[in-house]
From TrEMBL:
<feature type="domain" description="HECT">
    <location>
        <begin position="966"/>
        <end position="1300"/>
    </location>
</feature>
<dbReference type="InterPro" id="IPR035983">
    <property type="entry name" value="Hect_E3_ubiquitin_ligase"/>
</dbReference>
<feature type="repeat" description="RCC1">
    <location>
        <begin position="419"/>
        <end position="488"/>
    </location>
</feature>
<dbReference type="InterPro" id="IPR000408">
    <property type="entry name" value="Reg_chr_condens"/>
</dbReference>
<feature type="repeat" description="RCC1">
    <location>
        <begin position="300"/>
        <end position="351"/>
    </location>
</feature>
<dbReference type="InterPro" id="IPR000569">
    <property type="entry name" value="HECT_dom"/>
</dbReference>
<dbReference type="InterPro" id="IPR051709">
    <property type="entry name" value="Ub-ligase/GTPase-reg"/>
</dbReference>
<feature type="active site" description="Glycyl thioester intermediate">
    <location>
        <position position="1268"/>
    </location>
</feature>
<dbReference type="InterPro" id="IPR009091">
    <property type="entry name" value="RCC1/BLIP-II"/>
</dbReference>
<feature type="repeat" description="RCC1">
    <location>
        <begin position="193"/>
        <end position="245"/>
    </location>
</feature>
<dbReference type="InterPro" id="IPR058923">
    <property type="entry name" value="RCC1-like_dom"/>
</dbReference>
<dbReference type="Pfam" id="PF00415">
    <property type="entry name" value="RCC1"/>
</dbReference>
<feature type="repeat" description="RCC1">
    <location>
        <begin position="25"/>
        <end position="83"/>
    </location>
</feature>
<dbReference type="Pfam" id="PF00632">
    <property type="entry name" value="HECT"/>
</dbReference>
<feature type="repeat" description="RCC1">
    <location>
        <begin position="84"/>
        <end position="137"/>
    </location>
</feature>
<dbReference type="GO" id="GO:0005737">
    <property type="term" value="C:cytoplasm"/>
</dbReference>
<dbReference type="GO" id="GO:0004842">
    <property type="term" value="F:ubiquitin-protein transferase activity"/>
</dbReference>
Length: 1300
């Protein structure tokens, strides 16, 4: 930069750092200090060591530093300042101080670790011989003081920077922003959450990639990739890292299963490995003891694993756990902090949340302390030295509202909301900080001699009275030492006790506060020009939306029993960028787990019950418990209303990573307590390699390829893997809860507006839909059924707009393109997903109309013939299971779209049916031709079903000729001829003659004089005559009617029949009930409804009926008992439901059983192929009867003109004007005149092409029609009135062929 550049201003003078330090902050320490681990120097300020300090003493060496973070191991400590500096003291035998020490291997003076000068340290953790720090910035070339001022005035020059130097080799090769300060220095700001480690490396605990030599200089941990770490827990020789997306990684000593990798995987790890079972649970805090570990979820559940010899895992036994297992004894208790000591564990929980010992009557929110593990020195605070293997409440703290706990090697500390500090456990080195007059001789009910000199320990909490009377910000029990952070309050200032989200002091000792996207998006909307605010939104979206557990916490509808400031379970009045959500998710309850188990085990018996699913009478009422659907919609809308492409891209990429995580978890069997499927890889997939996703998005684990290697089986997702025998109590609950978390996450993703194309042109909908379907379909059948049931439980507008129509849109895109093998597989996958939704929709009573599932593009573009043949060949002509049956078939891949007939329009199904008929006709014609040749006949005389009838006796002639034909002849193409006055009419049957034949025949069949059917004026439909079959030969007549209907469908002819839909349901084998009776017999149906609604006490007197029914048999009243002895059993309020059921069954089934059986037999003789099973009863009626609605506008739009006519020709204009002026009856006559049928085909008049031919100039001849070809031959009439008269005459005298 040129020195003469006037635009460059000199930076202001460096301010005094003392002015920037918060006033009144004090650090008090006490306990063991023989290795200098308290940072307290001997008198005179020398670096000599002090053996121990029994009373709280201020750490003078850091009195000018704003200490915000504390960490300690057995023999060394680390302090983090608000400026991002790290100070260490204590033993340095293994280089754990990160600096050189003079005069020996220990240092009692806290000294700045200059190797971290370029990093902004935010938290630290100390093990037995190693140290780790969490950072969020990289600084180069500019001192902290100068940067502090310059950064406020700099113009940030943002650019992508990929390290190719040492920084990349050390794991910093991530997306970085380069900022240039006015003084010419650079500031590298990577995503927050880098971790460095150093010190003893015997077990690979520094994460450097190898075991063995100590690491004396801080180095970034291997295998972190682009993960952003937000919490750090360091045990004796292992460590746990929690990322912003809820993933947990482990490194170091694997003995006893402390790394949570599963049985047989107890080896040490020198690079990070994911603890996969925790991924779907929404972990907000991790804790590490000497050889055991713990994780706390956003909904307050606790998982532990590792060594359990002293009961420190809390599972009710003394065994180890190689993977995370839910602490079942704390079910119903909402934990809000966990701390692991050497061999004991402390849990801080909310009062009033139920569970063991919960104070359900508490009117105020109080923090209660539970402990378990080694009690040798009283560190559990339970008043005895017994080891405890189940969580027990610390009685000595019941009267206090505890806000923080901390567990050391052999002692514990607790901080109350009233700024009281309590200590209990071992006091060999004065770590309890007790005054000499508290227990002068070590006597008392909870005081015991330790047997080691003058040392003693307390088995019950005692308050420290030696601390200054100032507010306490945080406490820490480290090794055999103790520390507290104090702050003197300014006048009028109220300082809350304990770590608090609004301040940095001790923040990393408490759970991570998950960002609340709704508040962040609302804040960003009001400050759209604030780039930092928008980056906060992007980061929060990337974290929350890629974590199943955080996602569920964000959209929880439950409220915690009490909200504690500073806890991950409550919300505080913070700046918008600091607001965190209340993770009140109730899905860890006992009911949720047990009911899911019930749903899975009952899947085969079709009585699915699940968490949030009530089973009553076989029907399912569903909604995932704890999910706030309105919050889901509000959050998505708030994010998209920002109209920011980075936010939208982050949302899409995060959901993709979420789906990758779900796939990885399920395919490896890594739900808590479960086991991987056979042949799959281990739960821990080794080192995790980072990599940037699209648009700079982070990957969930950086190892999605490992998911494929692990196998696609999701059977571990099922209850069959009942969570590991030997995992102990809580394992089964862990499995159920992990599975439910994954299902709930999918439930949220299905509601994302990006699926419907709201992606600002980023093209996210198709890729997101493809991945979502792929992951979802790897669920077993029962899990898929449960998810679909949840989705169908959404409000109708959300189910249609957010779930079904986006999937239809995705199918449309697939159908429009060329159907390559990969494309076909995607179509079948999407169709299978729709099959699950359709089945759930039907089971819910048709929340969406069945027409909502039709896909016009698919029905138009797919090769229906190929689909039909493949269906017959591979699937045997079977569709997906009907509603209410087992979903086993849905869990298997589809082979043909004919297995999902609900996607195909009635027109497409009609084409399939006609295609099937064509195949059958060809087969029958070939067989008949061969038979004719063998008999010496010409095949032309044997390949058709020829029927010749007289118009005056059409029914008798048809019955006689059909009865004389063997059944297989009915499969031949139909060819009809009419005979008038002994002479055959001129019409040649190319379809038109057959249509007129069926029209006349059907009209004759339903004439009252035959007595086969009765007509209801109320419903305007025909029903089978109850008395008809008592006469000889009546069954054959009903068979004839069935054959006629079958022949009509088989030959593509529409009939004018008026049956209630009950008939079509019975033809398809569907059950019928009271709603069907109401449609066929409205008055009777309403009466039965009234009976069911009557006061039970009034039924018998008001009804005065027995269990019998009477009907008319040619004027004679006959009585039929509905049940044995029914003529003497009265209908009462207790048995009225049975009466209604039996009357419905008799009316619709039993009374016409013989008639309908013959009718159905004749129908299926002709039309009983597999294609018929594709139809719903509504569609079958449409197929037989056509559309009653006539859209002549569509007919006009698709008409074709020949012989000189065109759309604008004056004659054509006059013709359509006349047609539009006709009434409905005249229009039907015109349609019958031109096409041979007065009804529209299945696809409507728009699918029928009317051909209008010119028949010469003006003439007195009538217009004619070729019904076989839908052609109207129309002369060019000279006037409108003449055309009207001629046309009217023609359509009113249109019966017969060859008329002049």
């Amino acid at each position: 930069m040129a020195t003469g550049d006037s635009s460059v201003r000199e930076p202001p003078a460096t301010p005094n750092l003392g002015q920037l330090v918060r006033s009144g902050v004090r650090l008090m320490v006490w306990g063991r200090s023989d290795m200098g681990q308290l940072g307290v120097q001997a008198l005179g300020g020398s670096d000599f060591l002090v053996g121990s300090i029994s009373t709280p003493t201020q750490l003078e060496a850091l009195k000018d530093k704003d200490v915000v973070g504390l960490a300690g191991g057995a023999f060394h400590v680390a302090f983090v300042t608000a400026d991002g500096e790290l100070f260490t003291a204590g033993c340095n035998d293994n280089g754990q101080l990160g600096r050189r020490t003079s005069g020996g291997s220990s240092s009692a003076r806290p000294t700045h670790v200059t190797a971290l000068e370029s990093y902004n340290v935010v938290a630290a953790g100390c093990g037995a011989t190693h140290t780790m720090v969490l950072t969020n910035q990289v600084r180069t070339g500019c001192s902290k003081e100068r940067w502090r001022i310059a950064a406020q005035r700099s113009r940030l020059v943002k650019t992508r920077l990929e390290f190719a130097s040492h920084a990349c080799e050390e794991g910093w090769g991530r997306r970085l922003w380069l900022a240039i300060t006015p003084c010419g220095h650079m500031f590298l700001n990577p995503p927050q959450g880098g971790v460095l480690g150093w010190g003893g490396n015997e077990f690979g605990q520094t994460g450097c990639g190898s075991e063995g030599p100590d690491q004396h200089h801080p180095r970034p941990i291997k295998g972190l990739g682009d993960q952003r770490v937000v919490r750090l827990a360091v045990g004796a020789n292992h460590a746990l890292l929690l990322t912003g997306s809820g993933s947990v990684f482990a490194v170091g000593q694997g003995s006893f299963g402390a790394l949570g990798q599963g049985e047989g995987l107890l080896e040490n790890r020198s690079t990070l490995v994911p603890v996969l079972p925790l991924m779907p649970l929404g972990v907000v805090q991790v804790a590490a003891g000497e050889n055991h570990s713990a994780a706390l979820t956003a909904d307050g559940r606790l998982y532990t694993w590792g060594r359990g010899k002293y009961g420190q895992l809390g599972h009710g036994d003394w065994g180890n756990r190689p993977r995370p297992v839910l602490v079942a004894s704390l079910r119903g208790v909402r934990a809000k902090q966990v701390s692991c000591g050497g061999d004991h564990t402390l849990v801080l929980a909310e009062a009033g949340t139920g569970g063991a010992g919960a104070d359900a009557d508490s009117s105020t929110c109080r923090g209660l302390v539970y402990s378990f593990g080694r009690g040798t020195w009283g560190a559990t605070g339970l008043g005895s030295t017994d080891n405890i293997c189940r969580p027990s409440r610390v009685q000595g703290l019941e009267s206090e509202n505890v806000v923080q706990v901390s567990a050391g090697s052999r002692h514990s500390l607790a901080l109350s909301a009233s700024h009281k500090v309590f200590a209990f456990g071992n006091n060999d080195f004065g770590q309890l900080g007790l005054d000499s007059d508290v227990v002068p001789n070590g006597r008392g009910p909870a005081t015991f001699h330790s047997g080691s000199g003058d040392g003693l320990f307390l088995a019950s909490p005692r308050r420290l009275t030696s601390l200054p009377a100032v507010p306490v910000l945080a406490v820490l029990a480290s090794g055999d030492a103790s520390m507290v952070l104090l702050q003197e309050a300014r006048p009028g200032e109220i300082v809350l006790a304990g770590p608090h989200p609004g301040r940095r002091a001790g923040r990393h000792l408490m759970p991570y506060d998950v960002p609340d996207l709704r508040h962040l998006a609302a804040a960003a909307a009001t400050a759209s020009e604030d780039a930092r605010m928008m980056r906060d939104v992007v980061t929060a979206v990337e974290d929350v939306m890629s974590s199943p557990g955080y996602l569920l916490a964000l959209f929880a509808d439950g409220k915690s029993s009490c909200s504690t400031s500073g806890s991950h379970t409550g919300k505080t009045a913070l700046a918008p960028s600091q607001r965190s959500l209340g993770a009140a998710v109730t899905h860890g309850s006992t009911a949720s787990i047990s009911t899911l188990e019930a749903a899975t085990t009952a899947a085969d018996s079709d009585k699915a019950g699940a968490e949030g699913v009530g089973v009553s009478g076989g029907s399912i009422i569903s909604m995932p418990v704890g999910m706030d659907v309105s919050a889901i919609q509000a959050c998505f809308e708030a994010l998209l209303r920002l109209y920011n492409r980075e936010v939208v891209a982050a949302l899409g990429n995060s959901l993709m990573r979420l789906l990758d995580a779900i796939f990885l978890l399920a395919s490896t069997g890594a739900v808590p307590g479960s086991r991987p499927p056979s042949g799959s890889g281990p739960g821990g997939l080794g080192g995790i390699t980072g990599g940037s996703g699209g648009n700079g998005a982070r990957s969930v684990l950086g190892a999605t390829t490992a998911a494929s290697a692990a196998g696609a089986s999701l059977r571990s997702f099922g209850v069959a893997a009942a969570a590991g025998a030997g995992d102990g109590a809580g394992a089964g609950d862990s499995v159920a809860s992990g599975r439910l978390s994954l299902l709930r996450a999918l439930f949220v993703v299905f509601q994302c507006p990006l699926l419907s194309g709201s992606g600002m042109g980023l093209g996210l909908s198709s890729s997101l839909a493809s991945r979502l379907i792929s992951v979802t379909l790897r669920l077993p059948g029962d899990a898929l059924q449960l998810l679909c049931t949840w989705l169908v439980s959404l409000p109708r507008e959300l189910l249609g707009g957010r779930v079904v129509r986006p999937l239809q849109h995705y199918l449309n895109k697939l159908a429009e393109g060329p159907m390559a093998p990969d494309g076909r597989a995607e179509v079948l996958a999407a169709a299978r997903m729709m099959a699950g939704l359709h089945a759930a929709n039907e089971k819910a009573g048709g929340k969406l109309p069945f027409s909502e599932f039709y896909n016009q593009q698919l029905s138009t573009h797919v090769n229906l013939r190929s689909e039909y043949l493949l269906w017959l060949e591979v699937a045997g002509g079977r569709s997906t299971p009907p509603p209410g049956s087992s979903t086993a078939a849905i869990s298997q891949p589809l082979v043909s779209l004919c297995q999902t007939p609900f996607l195909l329009t009635p027109e497409a199904k009609s084409r399939i049916l006609q295609g099937e008929a064509h195949i059958q006709k060809e087969a029958e014609m070939n067989a008949s031709a061969r038979e004719a040749l063998l008999q010496g006949l010409h095949p032309i005389y044997a390949v058709f079903l020829d029927i010749s009838v007289r118009r005056a006796s059409i029914l008798a002639d048809t019955a006689q000729q059909l009865a004389s034909r063997p059944p297989h002849h009915l499969k031949r193409p139909l060819r009809v001829s009419f005979v008038s006055q002994g002479v055959a009419e001129e019409g040649v049957d190319q379809g038109g003659v057959s249509r007129e034949f069926f029209q006349l025949l059907v009209a004759e069949i339903f004439q009252p004089q035959y007595g086969m059917f009765t007509y209801s004026d109320e419903s305007r439909t025909f029903w089978f005559n109850t008395s008809a079959c008592l006469e000889d030969g009546a069954a054959g007549e009903f068979r004839l009617v069935g054959v006629v209907l079958g022949l009509a469908i088989y030959n593509g002819v529409i009939l004018d029949v008026h049956f209630p839909q009950t008939v079509y349901k019975k033809l398809l084998g569907e059950p019928v009930g009271l709603p069907d009776l109401e449609e066929a017999f409205p008055t009777l149906g309403r009466s039965l409804r009234a009976v069911l609604a009557m006061d039970p006490d009034q039924v018998e007197d008001a009804l005065c009926r027995n269990f019998e029914v009477q009907y008319d048999y040619f004027g004679e009243q006959r009585t039929v008992p509905l049940i044995p002895g029914g003529t003497s059993i009265p209908v009462t309020g207790a048995n009225r439901a049975q009466y209604v059921q039996r009357l419905v069954e008799w009316t619709l089934n039993e009374s016409v059983e013989t008639q309908f059986r013959a009718f159905a037999y004749g129908f299926h003789q002709v039309c009983g192929g597999p294609a018929l099973s594709l139809f719903r009863h509504e569609e079958l009626e449409l197929l037989i009867c056509g559309l009653p609605h006539l859209d002549f506008g569509a007919l006009e739009a698709n008409a074709r003109y020949e012989g000189g006519y065109h759309r604008q020709h004056p004659t054509i204009v006059m013709l359509w004007q006349l047609i539009n002026e006709m009434d409905l009856d005249q229009k039907r006559r015109f349609l019958s005149f031109t096409t041979g049928c007065d009804r529209a085909p299945v696809a409507g008049l728009g699918a029928l092409v009317l051909v209008i031919q010119r028949a010469g100039p003006d003439t007195d001849r009538l217009p004619t029609a070729h019904t076989c070809f839908n052609a109207l031959v129309l002369p060019e009439y000279s006037s409108r009135s003449k055309m009207k008269a001629k046309l009217q005459t023609a359509i009113e005298n249109a019966q017969g062929f060859g008329l002049k």
